[in-house]
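Structure tokens please, single chain.
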Amino acid sequence: MTESGSIRRCAWCGTDPLYVAYHDTEWGVPEYDARALWEKLVLDGFQAGLAWITILRKRESLRAAFDGFDPVKVAAYDDADRARLLADPGVIRSRAKIDSAIRGAQIFLEMQENGEDFSAWLWSFVDGKPIQGARPTPADVPSQTPESVAMAKALKARGFNFCGPVIVYAFMQATGMVNDHVQTCLRHEPVRAMSVD
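Here you go.
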């Protein structure tokens, strides 16, 4: 737990202003927009093997390089786009992760064309509403759960990559599918209050 005066936050955000702002305004807030969920899933995939602060620092560059994470545009990327992305120092220059983002956009659109709502499908793994974690300390926060294992398996079955159960659990925490702010964090109760009954 980090403290700034009498303000108590989850320890993982440290004191970096960018990280603190992310913790205080985004992390754990329920996200229902399908495109935004896909973007966050891609960003969590890009994080694999890296620190999340690295992704936060590059997020605006990644958004610019990937056309605002517009699935229609990303799904149509060709070899020239891949080469452009691999040469861009503002992105994570991993061919496998870039290819995964492109394929993920194509799967997103295929689901849409089949009448499947990406948001509703993802939220179905938590029965459509946030799981309210009651974690007294950071040590009580798991790295994966049965729900993240099930979602990871389903994502992989559809063809998504960089979506193991640990990455997926981080995604679920970030998008408010689970409220994992520790109980003493200033954001625990406000995030809990955002849950849709």
